[in-house]
Amino acid sequence: MAPEVIRDEGGSISWRKADIWSLGCTTLEMTTGKAPWCQFDNPVTIMYHIACQDTSLPEYPHPASVEVMMLVTMMVVVLIAAYVLSYSSIALFL
Q: Could you report the per-residue pLDDT of 12-25, keeping only the tens digit for each?
């Protein structure tokens, strides 16, 4: 869960940030084979550390494979397209 969501900051911008956060966590887990913050055994502890930012972000392996970079690029393009389409469809009703 993204820090903005845990802290209940609300607003459409925080949900966009949460989408990017989720994408980063997913690709990190796919790349390393381990969940981010797997050193903690309790989900509530993980959420606390994320929300309070009293722990550093997990290291992303370097260099990332070509396949992972292509996946991330395609996912970002899809996210951008979804936001553009949702805004254009809202504008039709205004």
A: 666 667 777 888 88
Tokens of residue 24, six digits: 């980063």
For residues 14-39, average pLDDT: 81
First to last CA, the chain: 33
Q: Domain map of the chain by residue range?
A: 3-93
How far is the C-alpha of 80 from the C-alpha of 1, rounded, in Å?
20
d(CA 67, CA 89): 33
Residue whose entry in the numeric block shows the structure tokens 């990332």: 64
Judged by phi (left if over 0) then psi (alpha if -120 to 50, else beta), residue 29 lies in alpha
